[in-house]
Amino acid sequence: MKTIHTMRWFGPNDPVSLMDIRQAGCTGVVSALHQVPVGEIWTVKAINERKAVIEAENHTYSKLEWLVVESLPVHEHIKKGLPSRELFIENYKISLQNLAACGIKIICYNFMPVLDWSRTNLNYEMPDGSRALRFVWEDFAVFDLCILKRPGSEKDYAPEVAASAREKFDLMTPEEIKTLSDTALLGLPGSEEAFDLKTFQGLLDDYYYVGDKELRAHLYYFISQVAPVAEELGLKLCIHPDDPPFPLLGLPRVVSTETDLEQLMNACRVNANGITFCTGSLGVRPDNDLPAMFRKFAERVHFIHLRTTKREENPANFHEAAHLDGDVDMYEVMKAIVEEQKLRTDTGRPDFAIPMRPDHGHQMLDDLHKKNYPGYSAIGRLKGLAELRGLEMAVIRSFY
Ligand code: DNO
Fold it and tell me: What percent of the chain has pLDDT over 70?
């Protein structure tokens, strides 16, 4: 009834090694071919190469397996619904076929326009001296109104937020402005480079005609094309929710709430149209009841990210808390997960154990002196996983 414990590995450039992941207690690896440009086909050769690297030391040490792709990214033309999306959807299907041929079955993706996750501070000091990722709405306003100067941005902020953002900006040093700008523009997992402002504004402008309604339609079109192919191949697609789960920079976001997920699940009723249940992303909204949402969509949850954020005094701001210490009721979520896995076991579903990874972690101890992908330090994730494994064992032992 245990989940499969996994960690994300960004590939050979990741400062965290496969051996670190193994010693943290994982059997599964979550990885992606970040070197392949978005929209191009993942070839069998490239997939097998990565697989071979992940499995290279399996004859000497405990076994590691590439279990989940995170992510097979969706090309922007698909999100924008351009006629050229057909080519990219065909490429996506071929990549799915190739992954199936290599035995990799769980494929995570997201449908956030332009940027993936967004934060305003990657080095927020916690009371114990460790570092966390943080999102401050007013700082985001500083970036949007005063640095990017996005046309039309004014209407997205309450007048008092806009006023204090401008005051704050006037007091910032050039270095502080650069750090905030680089942080806001980072947003792409697996990359360490931020966009430049002009290119970025161009990418936003391209979404001028894509509102909430259009983006939803494009997502449902995409999933109704690819999910039946995935189902046929024995694969599971699982969408990652928006992070944070609300619109930013005038761009719509359509995978943030229970209703959003419900509509998506109904848009194509096959099991392969599934969910990455990310408690860290969904949990930012107080109106998302996570244990209830897990139970509602349990059958279609193919991958789990466990992490929690803490809303601050100003509830528009949040930081990433220790894994058992934030606004998410991790105990209730874990109970719901264990119940679902029991049900799957009893009903003979082969996918009764769901891959789970401790999502993000604080930068702490030795890692404070190292460079890592924001959120993906070894020790912070190891601590998160250790806590989650303890919680999981206690839940299983007390109920079964
Ligand atoms: C952030 C991650 C996301 C996630 C993608 C999945 O750390 O949780 O970047 O990988 O959104 O498509």
Answer: 98
Known catalytic residue: 220? no
Which one is catalytic: 5, 75, 218, 240? 240
- Using the 3D structure, point to which of 152, 174, 204 is the last residue of a domain: 204
Q: Which domain holds residue 174?
A: 121-204
Ligand 1 centre to CA of 240 (Å) is: 7
> Is there an atom of ligand 1 within 6 Å of 252 CB?
no
> What is the overall mean pLDDT for the chain?
96
Q: Nearest to residue 131, comparing CAs of 144, 147, 119, 143? A: 119
Pair 111, 169 in one domain: no
Q: Return the amino acid letter for 211.
A: G
Q: What is the mean pLDDT of residues 254-283?
A: 98
Element (H, E) at 260: helix 258-267
User: Is residue 359 annotated as part of the catalytic site, yes or no?
Assistant: yes
| Positive or negative torsion for Cα 374, 116, 276, 67 | negative
Whether residue 111 is found in the same domain as residue 132: no
Domain count along the chain: 2
Given 77, 302, 323, 360, which residue is catalytic? 360
- State pLDDT tens for residues 182-214: 999 886 555 556 678 888 999 999 999 999 999
- The token pair at 21 is 């992941």
Distance CA 300, CA 111 (A): 17
